[in-house]
Amino acid sequence: MEVLTRFLLVSLLTFTVVQAPKDSEQHVKTALDSLKKTNNLTDWLYTRIDHSNINRRKSLSFLMKTEQDAWRKAKTPDEHGAWLMLLSNQGYNQLFSGNILESINSYEHAYNYWTKHNLNIEITDYILKPWANNYTRLGDYEKALFIQQKILDFAIKEHDNELAASTYNNMAISYRSLGDFKRAEESIRLGITKTQANSRVRILLDNTLADIYKDKNDLSNAEQIISANIARQKKLQLDIQTAYWLLSSYITAGNVQLAKRNYTTAEKYYHLGLSINNQYYKGNRLREKANIITELGKIKLNQGKAVEAINYFNQTLSTFGLLSPSGSVNETAIFGDNRIIDVFYQKALAYLSLGDDQSALENIRLSLFAVDKIRFELADVKTKQRFQGETKQMAEKAIEIAFKLLEQTKQHHYAEVILDIIEKTKARTLLDDIRRNQQQLTLQTKDSLFLSKQRLERAITYNEKQLLQDPEEIRSLSKSNADLKFKLESVEKQLREKYPALGSVTEARKLASSGVLKKLPQQTHIIEFFMGKEVIYVIEVKNRQVKHIKKIVNALPVKNSINEFVNTFYRHGPAAMLDQPKQFFMASNAIYKTLLADFELQNSQQVIIIPDEVLGHLSFDGLITDDKYNPSISAWPYLIKKTSVSYAFSIQTLLNQSEQRKNDSKAFAGLFITHENKGTKYIPAVAKEAESIKKLVAGDFITGKDADVNHFFEAFDKASVLHISTHSYLSGLQQEPTLALEDNQVFLFELSARKTAPSLVVLSACRTADGIMASGEGIISLSRGFAAIGTQGTIAGLWNVNDEAAAAITADTYQNLINGKEISKALHQSKLNWLNGKRNGEQEYLPYYWDSLIFIGHDQKLAIEPAGMPIHILLIIGSAILLASGIIYLALKRLRPKVAH
To answer: Which residues form a coiled coil (predicted)?
Structure first.
């Protein structure tokens, strides 16, 4: 009990600032020396702790050296209690000085110390709570929830209802931040059962519940709860803590009224919030202040007062430290924060209403720049998709403005701006996959480098935000951030060396720039699509320049017609195409005209298509280029007869893949799952496919029970071309791309840790380039999954293919590769061979049979060995035979009897 009492007493002192006498340094040194001589470790520790609390920043190094300066370890319960107090104070003082990662480490060390020594000391308030709060500050809500659950377990065990209720509130905030409103609301309900109606904790619970309802757009309940909560708080005597609760309540109430378009009421609540901030915090709650000012600007914008709105938005930017006295934005100071994303976008809308399109465009681009600065991971899939969808709508607005300026001014610069916006939107999607791979690798490999990288990124973001709270901390936090960024560069370098696939992360971070076109080969011809909510944009790039931009209005009907076309004629087998050839012909030609009719696609020319959203389901080779219907299907004017098509996810991704870790071997490996349902069902098509390829290509053919995870990893490491014939799907809450092998499944993120990757992966699984449609994210596909782990290209199928056609076209593609053709041309020629050959009937010339496979990625020639004896072996044997023949000839010549003349 004595240990606990002293622990709590000294803990309370950590929150009190004491003025130190001028001779305190010498006095403390004398006291410490005396305590050391008497072997009094307990008081020696508390003396150092007390001294460190006088000036935390200046004495931090002194406090952190305590373990080094101690002459022995703790032995008695009192000494263990004092040592635990030291670790707790180290955590608090590190946070106070801006070292949040070191603060986390100290609290973690304290918790482990408490566990190891089984100390009878209550650690909730002074270790667990601040430890969890640190993770919340970094946006690592999963770890925060883990610690919060420990606090809750303790509170329930001790029947501490107030602690349990406050912990439920914190857990609700974490769940809400993850987008899990169901668990958030459930946590609030459980918290309410632990409180009285008039308790202070109930204020926190109701504030959070109102926020949850507002996020769910349940505005009626949100208004009712927050209004009652404000009335309850007005009866309290406000202090530094309760005033902050009321400030939060006013902000929530204002947000609810703004959502209901009750602008006068909303404005009243926001001004009450500002008044609380000025009265109790001298206006220094800068993030809350910036938030309120932005919302006031939105009110003015909704009232048609754009100039007043811009003034408010500029005040927000000044509060964030992003606006110079001259009114220009300091772009280098922009950091990742939803409030910054929002204020730039709202400012853009205000300029739009004033007819200043150039300023509107610039502010949306700054908003998107802030999006790219966000370092935290959105763990919940739905939250992430919602965020990406909102970002894409912002990008569409920016393109709309830039296109208008392009039409008005005829300045080519705006065409490059449009390309830049589209490219950044697409590259963001692949970057998200790469980040997710890292996140999953962190969990699987338990490699501390991944964890260090994540923590460093989050700490940098936290410090950038924290600079807004206390201008006096600018010097220490800026230095801390510089140190963190230096460490981050070192960690990323180590990760790139250890996991070469992750090198693409650095490139993907750059996203697109005006210089991206200069990196393309001179003759590259690209047609890139952006499927917006209202408008579809098609941009043509040729000879390193933006040549043409097409705007297709009424995006939704176009999307629906393409989706209906694919669903009717491809996804459910060939029946519809066979029964309605003319309807297919005309529908296909209509899509061609809508998408490509304005572009010059010359004969024998190669074009790279960069699709978006629903277009990811469509193979362009089979599109009909002429509207004159011919009953003879073999004579139909398919695009493939005119142009060679390949695909990419973005220009930046294409460049990344061209620089990717190429496997220079000539090795081929194929995994063929010839049985399913644990070997009970034989799949003859897969066995036939393996045999047809085996006649053409030399390499490792892995079938039956050998097609397991270990053989797959071995093949992935060694092969230049990897053929995979198995089922594929998206699995788990995170919708991870997954391959089914003989003994187990393989998640694609696992392959990010391999040292090398195949140059080409051929995916002979059902609909491997197809995937799930997600708002703002496009097609979540296995093909993009392979691009995210470092492969240079994939051949994949868009629908369940006809076995005979697939086997013939795949085999022919390999023969063309052996003959020295680039990958896209090898596939292109094999499809043409099918169309130009004799078939069993006219129906086999329909695109359903031959057009499923597409190539996505960096095009190149691949050296693979033909079947039979490798040519270098044949040359060696041939040379040996010739040599042996020569030796035998000479020997026989010597043995030949001489003839007398």
So the answer is: none
